[in-house]
Amino acid sequence: MTGGSTRKLVFRVVVLAVVATMLEIVAVSQVSLFGVSADLTPLVVMSIGLLSGSITGAVVGFGIGLFLDLALVQTLGLNSLIYTVVGYGAGRLRELRDPQGAVVPIAAGAAATAIATIGYSLAQFMLGVDAPVSWLLLRDILTTIVLNTILAAPVFALIRRWLLPALPDDPQRRRRRAYTTGGLSPLSRA
């Protein structure tokens, strides 16, 4: 990547992270569906990790988590830790398996939301925060996971559309796709 394309990617990721976090705080958290509100931040971090890699995903996860903790006056660093794990995990999935299926963002969105909600609940419990632990908490966690699973594909598509002009062209990915379609295979010209 050249310096100009790196700056372009950093600019687009920072704008996306700030806008998504502000949208989460101001609008999305105020709307309740099925008794819970959607949580866009794990989906945004997962999408950036899937598109940009593990380091970018972890850095963006840390930044979004820190911004959320500061804006909502919560335990400082808790969301940062959780979203760093989400971003790094999504980025490693991209680097190790090169996921290209249409179901991958949906499954990764469900996993990211599960890690975020369960991880946050367990961390709060271990920190000794006085909160009622009941079956309602489990119901809310499962409902949030289902709601975010439904929203994962559209959120991923929007983020991909926003970041695509700044993402570097990956020659390995292009070469792999060409061989599976038969376009560049030396055996196809027999």
TrEMBL record:
The chain crosses the membrane at residues 12-36, 43-64, 70-90, 102-123, 135-159. It comes from the Bacteria. GO terms for biological process: regulation of cell shape. One of its GO terms (cellular component) is plasma membrane. It is found in: Cell membrane. InterPro entries: Cell_shape_determining_MreD (IPR007227). The keyword Cell membrane applies. It is a multi-pass membrane protein. It holds the Pfam family MreD. This is Rod shape-determining protein MreD. The keyword Cell membrane applies. Belongs to the MreD family. Keywords: Cell membrane, Cell shape, Membrane, Transmembrane, Transmembrane helix.
